[in-house]
Design brief:
Elements: E1 8-9, E2 25-26, H1 35-44, H2 46-77, H3 79-97, E3 115-118, E4 135-138, H4 140-145, H5 150-178, H6 186-206
Antiparallel strand pairs: 1-2, 3-4
Length: 210
Amino acid sequence: MSIPIKQKPCKAIGKAKGFNGCGTMTFKRTHGLCPSCYANWLLSTPEGKEKLQKSILTATKPKRDLQNRIEKEKKEKSLSYLLINTRTVCHDYIKLRDRGNSCVSCGMPWNESHQAGHFYKAELYSNLKYDEKNIHNQCVGCNIHKDGNHQPYRERIKSRVGSDGLEYLDQKAAEFKTQTTFKWDREELNQIRDYYKQKIKELKKSLPLD
């Protein structure tokens, strides 16, 4: 047998204690307040506003999570995101591959600040932007302050890619200059990114990184 609910006066208790209830006898109460007074408490007191905000955030969380997931998926599918993400993975591989090697231009001993520097500049030769033969570790001075320090780079790169590799780069650069348009597509970028991710995994298994 269920116990009947009794009416009680609207009088604040718990978190709402100190708020003036109307004293009306009511069956439904929250923190001792009738629905009308409880609404006033939510809207007019710091404690009530905090509780209201938390309730709103809790109620809208599933929708916000869905929106964030949709936005993330859109971002990950966008060409601009793929260009940046592919560049990051590619450069991570280069820095891991060349860990311990001196600067390709000036010969400065390797250190953690070395960067992935392009022989043929990425902004001028898009077709070589992610080509591992075209990217080698450089010190900050050569890559940034000396704008790639190209002439010694050309002399030293042979020891890394060989004469055939340098000829390949020169040919690819010359071909690019004859093209009227060049655009990366998502499929190509995904393939390149996955390629370097796999290369990184393989290197991490074989290189002593301590």
